[in-house]
Amino acid sequence: MFKARLSVVCGRVQPRPAKSLVNAARTFTSSAPRSKQRLVILGSGWGGYEILRAIDKKRWNVTMVSPTNAFNFTPLLASCAVGTLEFRCAVEPVRRFSPQVACYQAWCDTIDFKQKTLKCMPATAPLEFEGSASAPLAGETTKETSYPPGTGNGFNLRYDKLVIAVGAYSQTFNVPGVKEHAHFLKDVRDARAIRTRIIDCFEQANQPVLSDVQRRNLLNFCIVGGGPTGVEFSAELHDLLHAEIERHYPSLARMAKITLYDVAPNILGSFDKSLGVYAENKFRRDGISIKTRHHVERVEKDRMFVKEQGEVPFGLLVWSTGLAPNPLIQSIDCLQKHDKTQSLFTDQNLNVITNEGHADPDVWAIGDAANIKGQLHPATAQVANQKGKYLAQKLNKIVKDQEHTKPFEFQNQGSLAYLGDWKAIYDRSSADTVKTKETGRVAWLLWRSAYFTMTLSIRNKILVPTYWFLNWIFGRDLTRF
């Protein structure tokens, strides 16, 4: 039997193990536990945020790098832009998962795949910038790249595993003046700027010093892009004009005009053709002008020039014409990319592919920044979300040293688009299971129920139907603040 000796520490008598006991302990103790692998997620969109939610944070050392500290629920942004919903209904905070996850509001500028390092630049505003920003007046705009400048103090991060989910930017097709004078609808800050702009247009048009021509120019709302984003914003704006605006600005509401432009022969080209025709017919009955096969040549302050129409004055221009590659993806030259979209090619397990044709086992790419080689999936939130769920399951098995070789398979759940007046379209003609199409009030119920169930937090599952009900009873709030 081992004997313990006594020692005096700070005036107290404490037992001290015998030398043989210490040696025995050193012999039988195991080595220090291996540190957790570092997983870095670039981007807090539909793919990156889904991984952040589902990843095993007890086994992974997780770091999130994103220029925003929230996830934007993009299908509800059009509703937020006209006051149907409040802005917090369309965001989920990234820091909900702190302190288990290290979060940096920053851009990733470059990736060194050999050294496994990232060079990042803070996206937070310098202290002297805070408090100086104010909501833009009519005649002023916010642009997609007008976020507060970073502090300029870059930093480096190391990773063991990396997920690239940086998304894409709005496509401008290099049309001069778009970034300076148009509004985009990519996140909640864009929705806030659009909402302020709409109210300012009506307040300025209400001034007695303006002529009717000036008022009509201010109240000409132009949307470029006939995809789901442009169509849904046009519908939400129509609802606003024919409800609250008609009540509070009756003389101005008759002067307001909504015009939807697209270079394609039809709007909603990704939907079944019959549904696109249904949407066009409804818009024309509602007084929304549709200008297909129209090309915008340049945009200036308060006016744009259309090849087929000439000069078009506007009070608000919303640009939603597709996706352009993220600058980070453009800077990568050691990985294979799609010739047209410049998105990263991945294999069926979502690993990026090097120029030599090998899959990098430590790097994955998902969302609008990536495409599976040999497959063509639409650049939608549905695809990004499913890839995020798949990759989270894969990473949770990898960290347990379990095999996960099942390839990613996209399950098409169909597409939805709101058309205004409690009507919508639902397209499952290309779905993997039951194929069907719906229009009108039934599709609207499906639209609302789908987005309600897709909201991620309990808070927003309460807020979204609450604001829908409150606005149905009391109307939208037109206060500018």
UniProtKB/TrEMBL annotation:
Superkingdom of the organism of origin: Eukaryota
Keyword annotations of the record: FAD, Flavoprotein, NAD, Oxidoreductase
Xref: Pfam families: NDH2_C, Pyr_redox_2
One GO location term (cellular component): mitochondrion
Oxidoreductase in keyword set: yes
Stretches assigned to the FAD/NAD(P)-binding domain: 38-388
Gene3D superfamilies per the UniProt record, alphabetical: 3.50.50.100
Annotated External alternative NADH-ubiquinone oxidoreductase-like C-terminal domain residues: 413-477
Molecular function terms from GO: NADH dehydrogenase activity
InterPro entries: FAD/NAD-bd_sf, FAD/NAD-binding_dom, NDH-2, NDH2-like_C
Annotated family: Belongs to the NADH dehydrogenase family.
Name of the protein described by the UniProt record: FAD/NAD(P)-binding domain-containing protein
Taxonomic lineage of the native organism: Eukaryota, Fungi, Dikarya, Basidiomycota, Agaricomycotina
